[in-house]
Amino acid sequence: MTVSIRLQIKTLYKDLSLKEQAIADYVLENPSKVCHSSISDLSSDLGIADSTFFQFTKKLGYNGFKDFKMAMLMQESELAALSIHENIEKADNELTIAQKVFDSIMTTLTDTRKLLKEEDLQKAAAMINESNRLFFFGVGGSEIVATDAYHKFLRSSISVFHSADFHIQLMEAAVLTPDDCAFFISHTGKSRETIELANVAKSNGAKIIVVTSHAASPLAKLGDVVLISISQEIEFRSEALSSRIAQLSILDSLYVIVMFLNREKAQRSIAKIRRSISTAKET
């Protein structure tokens, strides 16, 4: 599936220079004009050199402006129907606000699904299956996602580990081996602590899977597999909160894939857990 220009821009936006972000905003706000203008006209509107706009298109993965413009023409109707932000209005009532939050979440999930690649999911599942131990790492809001993934994968036949404490995570990263697999979760991909953990894991030869919203981030560059979660912004609700829903869905998907690939072992493991926790439930 071809990734749309809008999604390409969102995954790279925070890694763009200020001038490149201005170009990105202009493209998303004026898709029809971009589709039907020359690079000189657009550069003049933005007050930049033609070469700056040209390099922006290269950063998005196109051969140049002509290639970029052709893609824009093919996606013009989609781009014209979308805006960069979906803001809460002062006059919105409680139901409207809630509906906008739900709309934002649904857009986040749809966008993230478009970015999923079969080869990445296959590789990630194989890395998990072939590992002796599976570790989940994350700090701050990403730690919540790591804990949820740990809770799910405990039902599998894989030895799985996670700690909420950063110092213990550092110790876990220090004892990783080439036979282990480590998940690193970070919305920005720029969390100093998470990058430190990933560097320690990398130095020990562990297989690394990264879940982040920014494909060009420092953390993404450390991953053997990188799974991208797109987030949708609305006022009073940060991108990180929105991306959490997408990240949970990515990890849920991998959990189901891994369990399906190991169906017999998974069923035995789930049966053991169900028997164990049944005694703690009221009858």
TrEMBL record:
Domain of life: Bacteria
Coiled coil: none
Keywords, in A-Z order: DNA-binding, Transcription, Transcription regulation
Transmembrane domains' residue ranges: none
CDD domains found in the cross-reference section: SIS_RpiR
Matches recorded under Gene3D superfamilies: Glucose-6-phosphate isomerase like protein, domain 1, Winged helix-like DNA-binding domain superfamily/Winged helix DNA-binding domain
InterPro entries the record matches: Homeodomain-like_sf, HTH_RpiR, RpiR-like, RpiR-like_SIS, SIS_dom, SIS_dom_sf, WH-like_DNA-bd_sf
UniProt keyword annotation of Transcription regulation present: yes
Pfam families, alphabetized: HTH_6, SIS
Domain HTH rpiR-type: start-end pairs: 3-79
Occurrences of domain SIS (ranges): 124-264
PANTHER family in alphabetical order: GLUCOKINASE (PTHR30514), HTH-TYPE TRANSCRIPTIONAL REGULATOR HEXR-RELATED (PTHR30514:SF1)
UniProt-recorded name of the protein: RpiR family transcriptional regulator
